[in-house]
Specification:
heterodimer; A: 347 residues; Rossmann fold; six-stranded parallel β-sheet; two-stranded antiparallel sheet; 8 strands; 11% strand; disordered N terminus; B: 327 residues; alpha/beta; 2 domains; five-stranded mixed β-sheet; 11 helices; 14 strands
């Protein structure tokens, strides 16, 4: 914690919402999804990808900064698994998980981080700008909240062209305090656009705890002022996230307009690579590690007898091998050629 | 119809209507552009003709307007966004500078972003410091944007048509002091390509480069100079990015003197950049130091006499050029 700040001195939110009945949603406790093993495999790949990124940074192979998302995989994988071809997704600079959850190739993601010619963006984007338009991952953004207006535009195009697509945006709790959030939700609502705004509430805006920057305790309630539904969901329960996203997508495709989803989760790593997370109250990280979304899915799979411990180990090994092989492939790729510097400024 | 006279304001609605007829992906978004016909009445009639799905009124939300145009362009539309006063670009600067301009490059060319942003710029009408700026200079240092500053009826029409067809983001500045200016459209190809200057007037003694309101003052000044025996070429570049350096260089070969007139302070402006390029790349062509006739380095004042003093006048252009010719 910062010097001088005691745990009991953390500010309380000004407006505390009384307990409300949970919106209808199917959680892991209600039964495992048919494709639970696939969801687990994808979450494991993302976890191991992020672990590998951290190692690459330590070795000095990745430039600039990076923002890791270990612990938040269920939000990305749950929501993106509710989408269909043609839907679009935008996310933040902590966006590796979301882009991978849309189906981006592991090796090309590593390639982008390593500044390789065959990286997702030809090595011109880097960690904070993973983009793969071919699968609907239309942009990762390094300006807090700035992709929300772009998401509204993607939803506008879908609505205008009658494609039936929805546009999803992932963003952090901190982004709900920036002006672009307000303008975007308001415009999406007044035009009844097929957009889904997903707050990954990991409880910290950079180094600041949510309560010190935000006077409400339930961010989903901010939806009320835009006349759209606001739904809270356990962001570490992949089935629950998928359930609420499916409902929001169905509503959006039917012309029912946008939804704001608040997924409660936790950032197990620091904000960026320079942040050791010294501000966390004692015991907080440990409590969230016990609620790790991957552990919970694995426990549910074992508890129902769907998979044996050996099969789980095999899944973990498969994910680890895929990640390691992808990383090795990407490291062998060439750098961009010199002429790439001046390409793609204009069409 | 095409040779009938119309004014600068009407050229906007004409260009937008023709673009919408040509390409059904073209939509308009902005504040009060629909039912109200635009704060400057420059979109009058389009809502009635094309309906509320293609002419979309927005809340007062410039970030959302530009961002929505960007996202819609990436996904297949050709949005034309209106920012009512160019000064309001300040509230959506991130969306223009960090999103719109960089989207193609950051993604390694995965997308084109065919967005046109129309903005009303310019001083002289007493709107004060926050509604009078020529903010085109704010965007010069942002690769990825094209910037157009049409100053006549056919140029405004033809550049808007080019901008909307262009695969890249184009900022089109419409000067509010020119709304009543009259002109005609040509019979044939009315589309004005981006990056091609207009040589408004030919003369062998000095090359004057100016845009929009200053272009017209430069022509007035050239008439006065001619009466004193000094023959000026007046060049209107029409777009600042891309900039037609070649036309300026060709003129300099004949005149050996360069004067740039701009409706903005000197620092960080297109005029300063043009002079720097010409001096560094074509030093041998100059017989006299180039001159930048710029606005006062102050905000735009309100009082009529002060605003008139802020703007470069034709008398000042004459005086500066006379001094240059006597160098």
């Amino acid at each position: 914690m910062p010097a001088g700040l005691q745990e009991d001195a953390l500010p309380e939110p000004m407006y505390v919402t009384p307990p409300q009945p949970a919106a209808s949603q199917e959680t892991l406790a209600d039964g495992l999804p048919d494709d639970a093993e696939q969801l687990l495999l994808r979450m494991l790949e993302i976890r191991f990808f992020e672990d590998q990124v951290k190692e690459l940074f330590t070795k000095g192979l990745v430039r600039g900064s990076t923002h890791l998302g270990q612990g938040q995989e269920a939000v990305s994988v749950g929501a993106c698994s509710a989408l269909r071809a043609g839907d679009t997704m935008t996310c933040t600079y902590r966006g590796h998980a979301a882009v991978l959850a849309m189906g981006a190739p592991l090796d090309r993601c590593f390639g982008e981080l390593l500044g390789k010619a065959d990286g997702l963006c030809g090595g011109k984007g880097g960690s904070m700008h993973f983009t793969d338009v071919s699968i609907g991952a239309i942009g990762s953004n390094a300006i807090v909240g700035a992709h929300l207006p772009v998401t509204v535009g993607a939803a506008l195009a879908a609505e205008h062209l009658g494609t039936g697509a929805v546009a999803v945006a992932f963003f952090g709790d901190g982004a709900t305090n920036i002006g672009a959030f307000h303008e975007s939700l308001n415009l999406a609502a007044i035009w009844r656009l097929p957009a889904i705004f997903v707050i990954e509430n990991n409880h910290y805006g950079e180094y600041s705890p949510l309560a010190s920057t935000t006077p409400v305790d339930q961010l989903a309630r901010r939806a009320e002022s835009y006349g759209m539904p606001g739904v809270q969901v356990d962001g570490n329960d992949v089935a629950a996230v998928r359930s609420v996203t499916r409902a929001a997508a169905a509503k959006a495709r039917a012309g029912g307009g946008p939804t704001l989803i608040e997924a409660d989760t936790y950032r197990q790593q620091g904000h960026s690579r320079s942040d050791a997370g010294a501000y966390r109250p004692p015991g907080e990280l440990e409590a969230w590690l016990a609620r790790d979304p991957i552990l919970r899915l694995e426990e549910a799979l074992q508890a129902t007898g769907r998979v044996t411990p050996d099969q789980l180990a095999a899944l973990r090994a498969e994910a680890a091998v895929r990640v390691a092989e992808a990383c090795a492939r990407a490291q062998a790729w060439p750098e961009p050629t010199a002429d790439a510097l001046v390409q793609d400024v204009y069409a | 119809m095409s040779d009938a006279e119309l004014n600068y304001r009407h050229a906007i609605a004409r260009a937008l209507a023709d673009a919408m007829d040509e390409d059904e992906r073209v939509i308009l978004i902005g504040e009060d552009i629909g039912a109200a016909g635009g704060a400057f009445k420059s979109t009058e009639g389009l809502f009635e003709r094309f309906g509320p799905r293609r002419v979309r009124d927005t809340p007062i939300s410039e970030q959302a307007i530009v961002g929505a145009a960007t996202g819609a362009a990436i996904m297949g539309l050709r949005p034309v966004a209106e920012i009512m006063f160019a000064d309001f670009a300040g509230v959506c600067f991130d969306q223009i500078a960090n999103q719109l301009a960089k989207y193609r490059y950051m993604t390694g060319g995965q997308v084109s972003v065919p967005v046109t942003i129309r903005m009303t710029n310019g001083a002289g009408a007493g709107f004060g410091a926050q509604h009078s700026q020529g903010t085109e200079n704010w965007f010069l240092n942002i690769p990825g944007l094209k910037i157009a500053v049409p100053g006549t009826v056919p140029d405004l029409y033809g550049i808007l048509r080019s901008a909307i067809r262009d695969p890249d983001p184009v900022l089109v500045f419409e000067h509010k002091a020119l709304f009543a200016l009259r002109g005609t459209l040509g019979d044939h190809d009315q589309v004005v390509p981006l990056g091609v200057a207009d040589v408004v007037r030919q003369g062998g003694d000095v090359t004057i480069v100016a845009t929009q309101q200053m272009r017209h003052r430069a022509v007035e000044a050239a008439d006065q100079l001619a009466a004193q025996g000094i023959q000026a070429t007046v060049i209107d570049p029409r777009t600042l990015v891309p900039f037609d350096d070649a036309t300026v260089v060709a003129s300099l070969r004949a005149t050996s003197r360069l004067a740039v007139v701009q409706e903005a302070p000197a620092d960080g402006s297109w005029g300063s950049s043009l002079i720097a390029r010409m001096l560094t790349e074509h030093f041998e062509l100059f017989d006299a130091p180039p001159v930048l006739i710029a606005a006062s380095p102050t905000p735009v004042p309100y009082a009529g006499n002060l605003e008139a003093a802020w703007l470069p006048s034709s008398d000042r252009i004459v005086a500066e050029v006379c001094k240059q010719v006597q160098y």
